[in-house]
Amino acid sequence: MSKTILITGAGSGFGKGTAIGLAKKGHNVIAGVQVEPQKTYLLEEAQKEGVNLEVIVLDITNANDRQAAFQYQIDVLMSNAGVMETGPVAEIPMENVYKNYEVNVFAPIALAQGFLPQMVERGSGKVIFTSSMGGLITVPFGAIYTSTKHALEGLAEGLKDELMGTGVEICTVNPGVFGTGFNDRGAETMMKWFNPEKSLSKLETIQAIFESGGLDNQLHPQPMIDAMIRVAEEDNSLFRNVIPEEIIPWIKATQERTWSIRKNDTVSLDPNSL
Asked: Per DSSP, what are the bridge partners of residue 125?
């Protein structure tokens, strides 16, 4: 059955791939992009792929853009747009923190508040939040970003229980480290201001984190795109959808570790140690 699906952050990465993939499967896709040039680019991509996409400029932090989007009647909201700011918590400029929370937390709340009334009134609908494995664990020097995803997880959990019985489904998709360029660009944000020689973190700690090669072996994004398409199409999804599933034991072990560590123990757990 064809659905009307609005996806934010469709100008690149998972969002673009999912929008085109859903359109190929016959769904009515409204693809939100942040700026006008992305609209032109995405329409050209859709034409090359032989699919119909309705592309709108939807900067999720812009109240006017959000208000215009609320005129659509949709079956599924894929709240996918996000940004990443990196750097040590003790030093990162607060303007970077505010920006990360505005895009990753406050705007998704505003979007959900705008679309949920129509879903509840109709007795059906689905909101999917693109979270992250970082919504379930913390990544050193990426803790501001991962904390925004922790917040998103909490909001999704609250919404799920608060809307029980209304017919509205709430769930998350939680990608691991995929090579869309998002992680690389996020890692670069701290280079504009970070001075390791003046950092409060010990040099050996910084070196250990940045020499671990966390971005060296990123996964091809197609499995994540396929999972997002599946979750958008299906009814009665799992609440949390971590991809690839192979990282779930590591995530759970890391969560469990926080109950037993002390002053000189790291929170981070090497996945190769399992």
From this structure: 168
Cis omega (within 30 of 0) for bond into 244: yes
Residue 268 lies in a domain: no
| Residue range 44-71, pLDDT digits in tens | 999 999 999 999 999 999 999 999 999 9
Q: For residue 21, what is the domain's CATH number?
A: 3.40.50.720
* Sequential DSSP letters for 83-117: ----S-TTTS-HHHHHHHHIIIIIHHHHHHHHHHH
Confirm whether 258 is domain-assigned.
Answer: no
Number of domains present in the structure of the chain: 1
Measured over all CA atoms, what is the biggest interatomic distance in the chain, rounded to whole angstroms? 58
The CA radius of gyration of the chain, in Å to the nearest whole number, is 19
Catalytic residue positions, numbered:
145
Query: Are 153 and 135 spatial neighbours (Cβ–Cβ below 8 Å)?
Result: yes
- pTM comes to 0.95
Q: Residue 152 domain-assigned?
A: yes
Q: Encode pLDDT of 185-238 as tens digits.
A: 999 999 999 999 999 999 888 888 777 667 888 999 999 999 999 999 999 999
